[in-house]
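Hi,

I'm pasting everything inline rather than attaching a file, because the server keeps stripping attachments. The sequence lines come first, and each chain or strand is labelled.
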Amino acid sequence: MKIKRIEFAFLLLFAVFLQSCEYNPVDVYERPVTKDVTPPQIQTLILDINYDTIFLYSEKIINFRFSSSNQEIKMVRFVIDNDPKFTVYSDNGTFDLTYGTLSDGMHTMLLEVYTASGSNSIAELMGAEGFLFSKSWKVFVDRSYYSRTKASVSNGYLKLTWPKYRDYDFEEYVVSRVLNYNNEVVIKRLKSTEFVDSSYVGEGGNYIVRVNNQKTKLLDWGNIELARNLPKLTLLPTESDPFILKWGKNKYYNAVDTIKLSQSLNLTYKYVNVKTTCDPNDSIYVLETGFFGDKADLILKFVPKKRNIRYTFDYYPNFESQSTVILGFPFIRPNTPLTSIDQVSLDEFVYLAGCDSIIRYSVSEKRTVEQLGYRSSGCSKCEFNNIIFSSSGKHITNYVNCTSDLMLVTSSNMHNYIIRDLKPFSGQNYTPEIFTSDVGTAIVNKANGGFFVYDFNSNAALAAYQKTIYGGNGLSISPNGDYLLLFDDSLRLVRFTNSQFTNIWSHDRFYYPKYFGFDGANPEQMFTWDGTTFSVKLCNDFSDVYEFSLSDNSILNIDFYNKEILTYNSGHLYVKSYLNGSLIKDLPINTDASFNNNSFSLINHTIVSRKGVIYFIK
Amino acid sequence: MIKRVLIILFLLISFIRANSQEFNFGFQSGIGTYSMKGLKNINSEVPQGLPFDTKLVADFPAYFYFRPTMLIRFNNFCLGLVYSFQSTGSRISAKDYSGEYRFDMKVKSNAPGIYCEVTLSAVDNFRFNLYSIIGPSFSNLETKEYFNVADTVLRNANYKFKAQNFYIEPGINFLLPLKAFSFGINLGYLVQFGDQAFYTGNNKKNILFDTKNQVSVKPDWDGIRIGLSVFYNLSN
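And the predicted assembly:
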């Protein structure tokens, strides 16, 4: 029993030794440190920020260098809005301060200079202990400055204004004018935020404003491109001569030395100076040359008072306002193709404008009273082909659609129209001009000679005309449909009754009258003109109603409703009485009216030119 | 492990008491020196990565070892079982008001062994013996790295490694029996053999590696063992 206790004691002792006598390091190395160290004096050797607020317009390079009186400078850091932006583990460096992710507006920038503590402690050596010196700035970010350069007019001069460059390094603004690509000229260096260009007259230009901020490069500060802005020439809408040109006052009038107006007539391009003025308010010119219907090319030139770097020969057109006018009262927009003018009533005429509209215009009201448009489906083509007016003008025929169908239009209400297929009468692929009366009958010439008298009401031919040798070709039908003018072996006037043709008058087909036709206002009358005598005849027997001498070069048009004739002779339009040939108006013109495309019409005491202008006689 | 050794020793005592001529149960303790070349190399590398100066305040110093022993004595020959526990360690230290850094390594070994002893001479009651111990060595290494700067713990990491090798310790001792007790003094030298390096996580491929010298690190318990021992003769 005693032995067992000793054994147990040994075992217990053994166990205790094992558990408790394991080696454990306990020594500690206490490092020598200096706990209380006075902070160093930091001296700024270089720092490119001299003010409390930084205006950041682009990038800004901040060079810095500091020195410490004792402890070493470990780190310099720039923090913007609590976000470290730049860190350098040295006492000097360069911080490129750019927009980066900064939004427009005010921000706070903090400069932190960290020095060692000088204690030689673990914390110091680990960078966790030291002295911190800091300074803060306000940073104002502005990206919008470039688009805020404006141009305005001040006292008759161009004035450029731009936002102020507010940073401390401002030196001057530099204003340049761009002449062309990669070529610009400095025109002003100044410190204010506005510049008046006293040489600019509205010729258009591109100005660049830069900031010289003492750095090696200029900061683009603004750019403005000015479109040419010169007064436009217009022709005052007068009913008759004199013709008057008008232009507005130049916005930059104080920069203008002289205004010169040059004129060229009817595409000769021989410009003649017709007016020179120094008065900016003098903006009217009464044309001394030029007649009704003339095309006048005009150049209004603004000569700058002061030296303008752009005012060189090659760029004179920039200083010129050019315009082309047709002399007369305009009834249509300029440059609109216009054809087929014809009188349709006492006061109105109809013309074909462009490709798809016929327009009715009232002379007395000076306005369009009706417009008919039409567009074929299935093909693209011009409408209203082969447009023909009846002798009275009350009806109009023309071809529409891809299948060339005939349209009969009532001119007093143009939307009241009917469309017929007349190819069974005229023949396929043949679209002759259709002469119509005011009673629904019409002449439909055939391709191989001869013609039908067609009735729109019954959509049937009333009669066929066919001569053995010449076939026959219908020329016109009287408003009441009772008389036809036609060609076969001779020029004939025939009566058409009960589907029968009865010859009334015939004339040698090779020497027929220079001008003839039915009276649009009097169905029983017609007229002939042989070049010397104008005769009004009864259709019934071709007897004279009256006649008078008329020896002009050509008859252009007759207004049956107002009993007036328009003739042309040697550069003159003559308005004469339809009743006796007496002269009503002598209107000189420059254009040769014998050409059809320069034709004139006489409508309600006005002369209407196919160029789109009207001359009011009364 | 310790439990297992205790059970074996207990069974052995019971067996010997029943069969031997003279049964001695004793305990030996003393000072051992420990080479630990590989671990010392690691200690030499640690300060190089630190921005402040440190000091190696403990570098695997000589330290106590403990060795319970159970012997059967046959006239001039003695045979028995021993269990050795030995430990040492190191510390790299730096401390001031602002923080502390320390890197501790504690290494210990549990080493069961077979003890053989031959009596060379016996004068009066003194015996001069030659002994040798051989057996496996189970080493454990624990590293602790702690770094605190300005009351902020930057690092606090522990790693444990282990390794198994073998050892042999030849030596001499003087023994003075007095009644039922015997008192002795011994001097030996432990030589470790075996190539197993420290490994961690029960994966013998995760070894402790000395990157500077490009060698794996193994325990190195080589060194002198000087100790005192006391035995109790259970046969009395």
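The two ends of chain A are 162 Å apart (CA to CA).

If the labels don't parse on your end, tell me and I'll reformat.
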